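Narrative of activities, Objective 1.

The group set out to show that a structural description can be obtained from nothing but a protein's sequence at a throughput compatible with the screening campaign. Below is one input-output pair from the validation batch, recorded exactly as produced.
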Amino acid sequence: MHIKKLLIATALTAAVAAPAMAATTNVAEGKSVFGIGQFGGAALSSITDGFFSSTPALWNADAASWKSTGNVATDPFIVIDLGANTTFNHLVLQGAADANYAIKYATGGLNFTTAWVANGTGGNGLQTWDSGSIDSITARYIGIYASGGLGNFSVSEFQAFQTGTGGTAPIPEPETYALMGLGLVGLVAARMRRRNGSVG
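Output recorded for this entry:
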């Protein structure tokens, strides 16, 4: 009887907790990256490899780098292709600390809308910015634009997450409801047995 109660409690805990546990997925990891303009330093693909620079004291360590043309309209920028329209609501960027970065998005084509701006604090080396939870965005392309500083820019890592907070709540799977129902049936059955056993 003790094992049944334990199983019932476990089933109920899993059923109640499952909808609340949201997976955090870096939807940009391993995705295709290309640049509009001229780039140097590390390969552009390293921007979505899931690893931050191990030497953040250097502004261009393990980072793709580029220079301003002096005209924002013709400055190089980075594009990450998520492969399909994908939802995200949390952004992280590691880049040169003396620059500002506008993270933009587009569902098709390259007509970008700004999602978040990371402002540099100045100084040498790399800085890591975290947007925290933002309104959910669904897009295929993410653009990284830079400005400010000395006109030398770099990005070592970019991550875009879909989490269960700040956006659409996760929808429980049918198995979750089945498990919860089974747990409730077990609780009712255990209660009825206890009641019937204590009367006789």
